[in-house]
Structures are given as structure tokens and as C-alpha cells.
Amino acid sequence: MGLGGGRTMEKLPDEGSPIPLTTPAFDVAENHSHDKDAKRFPPPPEAYRLYKRRFTGVLGIFILNAVGGMGWPYFGPISNEMAQEFGITLDEVNWLGNMFALVYLPVAIAFPTLVSRYGVRRTCMIGSAFLLVSAWVRFAATPHSLSRNGAYTLLVVGQFLAAFSQPIFQIIGPVFSETWFNLRGRTTATMVLSIANPIGGAVGQLISPMVGNSRQSILVLGVIATVASPFVFLVGDAPPTPPTYAASRKKPTLSSLLRAVLGKEAPDADTWMTIRERIDFAILTLLFGVLVAAINTFSILSNQYLSPVGYSADISGFMGAALLLTGIVAAIITAPLFDRVFTHHLGLTTRILCPILAVAWLSLVWAVRPNNTGPLFVIMAIIGITSIIMLPVALELGCELSRNSDGSSSVLWFSGNLFSLIFVLVQGALRAGPNAKPPLNMKAALIFNAAFICVSVAFITVFRGKQARRERDEQEQVLHANLTEPESPIIPQA
């Protein structure tokens, strides 16, 4: 039932139908704050709308993001086999993954400009082209007739090209969900698109040790990329009518976000951030970067963590897949709840899950030992559930705090890949020597990983996470409802 004489429609809108609004009625003409807002912001469209083709766009980006995510951790479970077959060192194998983080950084910075200039659809086409070409450049490294240096060079170039596609499909998730979905589906859409990359990583870790030798694994990756590339044609640019107020606004630039974080943005700007929001965004950027780095590093170094204490490449792959797949199931269950039930609890969720996650990573320092398979799988499940739930939550919180989906997503993923590069390099350097017991063990690396995560998570004690973008969208729905509310007829007095 509507409040104060407002109208209520409970059936969700179908293709092209207006989104229902339930609001109190009041006299807009007397509300001077609304008059002021009308000067700062253009009036909303006659009705916000949803379109069924938003789901085909989600499908297209999901598949491309999943395949793009396979390339980074793909060689982790077969790192030892890669080193033997191609005559390279483990550090050189690690650089096939590091290449993604290295290229990711400038692409993440350029992403908002890319989307602003070419739109969502053409940006995805650029990413798809890089994905396809990179797969077959990698395959060109597989003939036995090539020299060691020639083969490794082609592998590096292939990874370099693939690294251009991954950030495009990974960062674009919150942008697409804000552009095409309303308040009751935005977090779920972000969840679906953000978990695509971990799903691809999990599938890649399962496939790479199972399809034969490392050269055959590279061929399989090329075939998968070729099949996935045409899905880019499912992605639309923007709907004719936006689904929310946030979607109707012109996309802010990355520079406006940086100005807002530094306190240099004008107070009357839509992207202006309070001191509390700036502190929260800084904490969120640190936490997101460190926790993404921990997952990425484990994906790349999983075999190097576990093989010195007696675990096979298959078991290493299964543990990495268990981490990601349990988290994916948890995210699928929880994301709709954040859209429809716990709509204002993203900050609270972050404060609860981060300490649990830190304890789980800390426990690995003692759990990685021989004949401890069961407890390791349990720890992997806990890390996966908490981490993957946090992934869409953090991305949405970034948009909420900044009101800048392009810029916040770019900054968060930039942080994740910067820390990933640091973690992989540092932990590779902390590998024990061949005379250690056991040889080449990663005990010191696990200690570094746990210590860095625990120190970073300590900042969660002062994190709040106010959902400012959602509040603004809800206010605009109220304003729009009252602007379109028909006036009551005037009954003449007798």
C-alpha cells in the first residue's frame, strides 16, 4: 500500500515498461530544495525503464570475462611442467602471470577514457580482438623446432596481448550494471560479472593439468578463446531510457574521482566526497588490492606452495578450484539478498567478512604441511566464500562512495593488480633454496602473505561504508514520483 496517498505497483516491469515507484505525496512547488536540485541536475526522464536485452549483455561479458580470466593463473598448476618442457625457470613461468598485472596497470588508468570515447560495446570489441589474437600467438610458441628463447618470447608476447583484454572485461562489470540495471538488480549484475573472472581462473586451473602436456594445454586455451570471441556481439552500448538516476548521468571522469579523493572537487559537484567517504574509499582500495592480490598470488603460485610438501599438480589445481568455486556459489546466493533484503548493509558485510578472511590466510602458515589435505580444502573453502562474496560488495561500495562507477572500478582493480605484482615478486624471492628442508619450500612467503593481510585488515575497524549513490537514487525516485503525481481535482464549494 502506498504511503500518504502515493501509488504502489508490485509487479516488476517487463521490456520497456516503467519502473514502479512507491512514495509519499507532497507539494513540490513548496519544496525549495527540489528547486535547487533542479538547477544542479537535469530532471529525470518521464519514466525509468528496464530492457530484457540487458541479460544478453550480461551473458556476453560473462563469457568473455571468464575466458579472459583463464590466462593469468593457467600456468600455475603446471608451472613445474612448463619449466621442464620449455627449458625455463620457475621465475620465468611466474612472469607469464606477472605480465597480466604489469599491463593491467596502465590499461586500468586508460579504461574510463576508453569507455567514454568508444562506449561499452566497442570497448568490449577491442578486448575481444586482443583475446583472440593472444591465444594463437601463445600457440605459436609450442612447436618443438623453436629455440628456448624464441618459444618463451612468443609466450610472453601472447600473455602481453591477453593482458590488454582482461582489464576491459573485468572493470566494465559495475559500469554495465549501473547502465542497464535498477536498484533491485544492480548488485546481482555486478556479482555475476565480477565472479566470471574467478570462474575462468578456476576452470583454467582444472583444465591445464588435465588435458595433456603443457603444449596441449596452450592449444586448448586457444580453442576456448576462439569460441568465446563472437559473444561480444551480445553486448549493447546503453538502453534508450536509463533504469535509474545514476544511469542517466553523464559518466564522471577518472580525474574527477582523483580530485574528489584529494578533496579538490567542488562541493556542489555530484561526485564530491565527504572526508568520511574519502577515508572509506582509501581503506576500501587498500583492502581490495591486498585481498585480490592474495587470491591471484595463490592461483599463480599454488603448485609452488604445495609441491615441496608432497602435493601433486592435480591436487594443487583442485585446491585452487575449490577456493574459487565455493566462493562463487556463496556469491550467487548472497548477491540477490543485497539487492532486495540487506540493501543498506554492504559496509557491515565488509566489517564482518574481512577479519574472518585474515584469520583463514594466517592459518595457512601452519596448515601447508605434508598429509594435511582435508584441513587445507576446508581453509580454501573459507577463503573462497569470504573473498568472492567480498568481490561484488567491494566493487559496489566503490561506486556508492564515489558515485563514479568507471573511475572507482578502475582504481580498485588497479590496486588489486599492483599488489598482485608485488606479492608474486616478493613471495617468489622468499622461496627457500634447494638445500632447505623441504627444498624450495614457500614457508617464508606464506608468513609474508599472512602478515600483510592481517595488518591491512586492521583498518576495517574504522571503516563505515555509507551507500551514498543508492541514497541519491532513492531520493530521485521520490522526487520523480512527486513530479509526476497527478494533482487532485478541485471541487468547487457550494
Give a brief description:
By secondary structure, the protein is an all-alpha fold. The protein contains 16 helices and no strands.
Describe this structure in words.
- With 494 residues, the chain is mostly helical.
- The chain has one domain (52-484): Growth Hormone, Chain: A.
- It contains 16 helices and no strands.
- Helix 6 (186-207) packs antiparallel against helix 11.
- Residues 1-25 are annotated as: Disordered.
- Its main location: membrane.
- GO terms for molecular function: transmembrane transporter activity.
- Keywords: Membrane, Transmembrane, Transmembrane helix.
- The chain crosses the membrane at residues 55-75, 95-115, 122-139, 151-176, 188-211, 217-235, 281-306, 318-338, 350-368, 374-399, 411-430, 442-463.
Topology:
Layout: H1 32-40, H2 54-70, H3 79-86, H4 90-139, H5 148-180, H6 186-207, H7 214-228, H8 245-248, H9 254-261, H10 275-306, H11 313-340, H12 346-367, H13 373-402, H14 405-429, H15 443-457, H16 468-484
Give the overall average pLDDT: 80
Tell me the radius of gyration.
24 Å
**What is the domain total for the residues?**
1
How many DSSP-defined strands?
0
Strand content: under 5%
Largest sheet: none
Determine the CATH superfamily. Answer: MFS general substrate transporter like domains
Q: What is the overall number of helices?
A: 16
Structural class call reads: mainly alpha
State the order of secondary-structure elements, H for helix, E for strand. HHHHHHHHHHHHHHHH
Which spans of ≥5 residues are poorly predicted at pLDDT below 50?
Answer: 1-45
Distance between the termini: 33 Å
User: Which word captures the global form?
Assistant: globular
Per the CATH scheme, the topology name is Growth Hormone, Chain: A
What's the CATH first level?
A: Mainly Alpha
Level of helix content? 55-70%
